[in-house]
Write a structure and sequence with these properties.
By secondary structure, the protein is mostly helical. The protein is about 65% helix and about 0% strand. The chain has one domain (about 5-60). The chain is globular.
Length: about 70
């Protein structure tokens, strides 16, 4: 993922309850499992929006998609 992709993804997460298409796009990206979560957390934390993004994803029920990975 590039910075542009991460910024776009974070913005969609923050506005997930405002735009129905954002929810559909995020759901499709989660199903494809092509998100670099370390990069998303790094960028969103650097811009102080990680807690808001977490709350938005939780409110829409997307946190149940995440499962712990054993490496």
């Amino acid at each position: 993922m590039s910075y542009k992709d991460v910024y776009y993804f974070v913005a969609m997460c923050l506005t997930i309850s405002l735009e129905k298409k954002n929810k559909q796009i995020i759901e499709a990206r989660l199903k494809k499992n092509d998100i670099d979560w370390e990069f998303v957390v790094e960028v969103s934390t650097g811009h102080y929006v990680f807690p808001a993004m977490y709350c938005a994803l939780k409110r829409e029920g997307f946190l149940t998609v995440f499962t712990p990975r054993i490496t």
